[in-house]
Amino acid sequence: MRFGVFDWVEASQTRSAGDVYEEKLRLAEAADRAGLHSYLLAEHQGTPLSIDGSPSVLLSAMFQRTRRLRAGGLTFCLPWYDAYRFYNEVCMLDHLSRGRLELGVGRGVSPIESRIFGMQDVAQSRERYRETLEVFFAACKSDALDYSGKYFRYQDAELHLKPVQKPYPPLWFPSSNAESIEFTARHGYHTAFLGKLADCKPHFERYRELWRAHRADPGRHNAHVAEPYLAKTQHLVIAEDEREAERLGLEAYWKWAAHIHHLTRKLGRPDVHKNDPYAEDSAHRLITGTPESVLPKLTEMLEMTGANYLLCIFSFGDLAQEHALRSLELFARKVMPKLLQLPA
Which of 105, 249, 264, 327 is 20 to 30 A removed from 144 (C-alpha atoms)? Predict the structure, then answer.
């Protein structure tokens, strides 16, 4: 079992953007001291759900403020990048981190956001994502890039950087539907599941089945990773007082829910996922309480999902930094050691 932090880096009504970024850096420092494995950032555009329009910028600062913590984008939305520049940014981050970069790649979940970058539909986003990834893999293998595709063409573009991690950092690809799971599992990507708890375990079981069947195939994208992480995100507020934890958690949750549905509601469209703090069919459920009461809830969640990686969402909505830091500290000191004792 591994433990990490996931963060959308939401806009705040009470703090400046600079204050928000500083809070994330302090949370990363605390995660580093506590021995968590990673800090993974979302990338979104044009929405209060995320003011992390350039994950590389925030990640580079995180790497300077930490020593052991791994960090990365979950995900870098590849259709929004120039492929050659993306390759060089990844190499720079891997060197700045001394080989601590985790590399999430995807096409971007929101077609509304992708239109900002000229994407006409999901099919075009998917094409550009795949071509950007092809360029990245080709660049990792050569000293000069020669590539001719539908979206990118490079002739003898010199490459003076290579990733520290060979052949490149570990790859993540969030996968929550049957259409993408075969690709993700066959190539052995680390993954994270978005959806209700009841759907998670069958999804992960199918993933493991496909991964075992293809783990010796040639040309696997994540072949340099021994075993994939199957992660579940979890909104989490921990305090010494049960009622205080629930009050803070619910206030932050409803603010976060308004952020995640901001663009679809702005356009008068139905919500893509049901988000309710306690509903069984909620895509994101909330856990609050003292360390003693949170432990059995997390244990049950992990048993229900079959996850081997818990991505804790300590900072969400407009939760004050002191409360996010307290949740992380109590989790690391009183909850995480007991979760590590659970049978696999």
Answer: 105
